[in-house]
């Protein structure tokens, strides 16, 4: 069984799984990040509309970078694509076409950013 990892985007900053956690409290899930340098604990309820969760797909790119939904990538031939989650599965969208994610990974993709932190990547 693979480990479930997430990133979370709050509209301003991407929070990595390694610096964050989740806890269950009174039938709610709380997303919590502690910023050591600011001695600050960031908390949001999981269902909060301002918090977008991004799940790790369980694979890495050709450089060993973990791939998450909403990541942008480029192929060895220079095409740019995006990872999406739809209908219960992860997919790649490359040149406007949706395809099985494994086909993109087999092409040797490289993660170049994501749609939230790097919207300029087309």
Tell me about this structure.
This protein folds into 2 domains: 6-45, no CATH class; 52-114, YopX-like domains (SH3 type barrels). Strands 11-10-9-8-12 form a 5-stranded antiparallel beta sheet. It has 122 residues and is mainly beta. The chain is elongated, with a radius of gyration of 16 Å. The protein has one helix spanning 101-106, and strands at 6-9, 14-15, 20-25, 28-35, 40-45, 52-60, 66-68, 71-74, 80-86, 89-94, 97-100, 110-114.
Q: CA-to-CA gap between the ends?
A: 34 Å
Q: Can you count the helices?
A: 1
What is the CATH C-level name of the largest domain?
A: Mainly Beta
The percent of residues in helical segments reads under 10%
**Reported CATH architecture of the largest domain:** Roll
According to CATH, what is the topology of the largest domain? SH3 type barrels
Low-confidence stretches: none
- Number of structurally distinct domains: 2
């Amino acid at each position: 069984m693979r480990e479930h990892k997430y990133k979370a985007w709050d509209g301003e900053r991407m929070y990595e799984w390694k610096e964050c956690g989740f806890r269950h409290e009174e039938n709610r899930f709380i997303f919590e990040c502690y910023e050591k340098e600011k001695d600050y604990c960031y908390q949001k309820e999981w269902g909060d509309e301002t918090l977008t969760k991004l799940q790790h797909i369980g694979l890495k790119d050709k450089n060993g970078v973990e791939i998450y939904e909403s990541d942008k990538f480029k192929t060895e031939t220079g095409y740019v694509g995006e990872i999406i989650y739809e209908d219960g599965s992860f997919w790649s969208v490359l040149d406007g076409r949706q395809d099985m994610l494994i086909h993109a990974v087999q092409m040797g993709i490289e993660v170049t950013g994501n749609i939230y932190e790097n919207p300029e990547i087309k």
